[in-house]
């Protein structure tokens, strides 16, 4: 449910209601996510250049790429045609494709924005953002269910803010200080992508006595860094108070905490993804109380994970929602 909702939110953000991507679009995106996180013998023997062709993975990736490229090209051309026939007086809300096309046509960036760049941004949001957002939401809910005191405080904050109107919206998200602590600790223990996208070393170097040649593929384990006891006290504990009055943040300037990467290739969808996750969690926590099924105790919740493109729960989180009714004064 969470994953499907994330896909729907991203599709509406990117294409609004002006385009209707087929189910094939989402299907191919999911195939790419699974392929990125799955086992491939070519990873064990990267020097054998024929393996990608023998395994058949390259042919699959090329076919998926061609199909996605054709769909995106069609969507972009549809937006261009409609924008050409839209008057300034028309009440039309721009979606992501409209914004990017406007930047392409009128400039405003330090570099030219090509159609290929627009396609890449959309794919980053759809393929990476949706899977990581749903995984982060599920882990945040899991940790709060495991720690009822934290869940209670997060809901109390939300209801204090939103009981005034009875409507959860993004305009008041900045007031949710405690929920932001929940998010930071969730990202530390459960980064959206446990192994960051591969980088390549520019020059020869030595790290802890190991010789790293130039042009070596480097994979950073963000999951292990966030649990390193050299940098985090009680590293395995979900402890929100560690972030109070702390300048350490997830935006790439503190290398002990890099769930989105760092530097020039930090995740471009970080701000969008965090907004989606915070708003989604706020909706879930405000409108419902939550409990485990079958009288299960909170401390018995299984937190086992499996690694893939994202570090997901081994077993889906199953909870019973209990509708919350705000005070009559705001209804």
From TrEMBL:
First and last residue of the signal peptide: none
Compartment list: Membrane
Coiled-coil portions: none
PANTHER family named among the record's database cross-references: OS06G0641600 PROTEIN, OS08G0105600 PROTEIN
Main subcellular location of this protein, as a coarse class: membrane
Protein name (database record): Cytochrome P450
GO cellular component labels: membrane
InterPro entries per the UniProt record, alphabetical: CYP450_71D, Cyt_P450, Cyt_P450_CS, Cyt_P450_E_grp-I, Cyt_P450_sf
Cofactor: heme
Keywords carried by this UniProt record: Heme, Iron, Membrane, Metal-binding, Monooxygenase, Oxidoreductase, Transmembrane, Transmembrane helix
One Gene Ontology term of the molecular function aspect: iron ion binding
Residues binding heme: 267
Family recorded in the similarity comment: Belongs to the cytochrome P450 family.
Lineage: Eukaryota, Viridiplantae, Streptophyta, Embryophyta, Tracheophyta
Membrane-related topology note: Single-pass membrane protein
